[in-house]
Write a structure and sequence with these properties.
Layout lengths: L10 H16 L26 E9 L4 H7 L5 H14 L4 E11 L4 H17 L3 E9 L9 E12 L14 E6 L8 H7 L6 E2 L2 E2 H5 L7 H10 L2 E6 L4 H5 L9 E5 L8 H8 L4 H4 L7 E7 L4 H10 L4 E9 L3 E4 L1
Parallel strand pairs: 2-3, 9-12
Antiparallel strand pairs: 1-4, 2-4, 5-10, 5-11, 6-7, 8-10, 9-11
EC number: 6.3.3.1
Family: Belongs to the AIR synthase family.
GO cellular component, one term: cytosol
Length: 333
Amino acid sequence: MLTYKQAGVDIEEGYKSVKLIKDYASRTLSQYVLNGLGSFAGMVELPEGYKKPVLVSGTDGVGTKLDIAFKTKKYDTVGIDCVAMCVNDILCHGAKPLFFLDYLACGKLEAEVAADLVKGVSEGCLQGDCSLIGGETAEMPGFYSEGEYDLAGFAVGVVDKDKIINGSNIEEGNVLIGIASSGIHSNGFSLVRKIFSDLDEEFEGKPVWQTLIEPTKIYVKPVMRVLESYDIKGMAHITGGGFIENVPRMFGEGSFTAVIKKNSYPLPSIFQEIINRGVEKDHMYNTFNMGIGFVLAVDSKDKDAVLELLISQGERAYDIGYVRAGGEGVCLE
């Protein structure tokens, strides 16, 4: 008799995976989650205090950074990247993340590997102050190669309708504050993998893969603190497309130019190394975050106070430029 296991799907391994994953998910559950893992759907009630609550959602994946995890068998951090890519995006509109769901697909399920991947998702949810309320693990033999996984996720947050940040309040003369990234984050890895073909080569005293796999920084907690006290005009998460594509997205329908002062903050050494290996510097700003993972537009009178608040929370934050009239997108100086 032909069985599902003979076709490539091991149900028992799936049960083992779910048991391991439940422990990680349970750490993240807030008081607003109404049920645990195992139901057909997750249920979350809206927190009190919102007059006209608006749900804000975002979805993304880890991308080809996963290849670094496969080759080094370091699986417990890329889940942080998955959460970060989603919660940092919805944060740009002033939304506090509420919950997260993940999607994990593979050719052959290994329970311990799946648990490590979700361990990272759990850690990302803790950093992003949201609950991991469910997900899907899909074993798809013949579709994915054995040993390879894909990881994506979906986040939902909430913001009062009159506090939505959409760029409509941005004005000429607003200051751009940049918060440092933790490294390359989770974009540009198709290029990175070509540049660093030997993951074990030494970079600053350790194998380069350890620098490359550093997880994406999650900005939720420090930025939410800023939003409690200051009027933030616009925000941008610097992901794929770098400064060039992402900073203008904070302007909404406004016709402005973001002037970025390239020498206003220290360039991380990993980006300088990529430049040294042949990538044009201007192209870098259209591909990578170049050391700044999140940008806020603030009134000039609030600049020093916002910087001080971010720095007091342990962030490396800088005055990186300003807003001027004109629809030029980004001007690098």
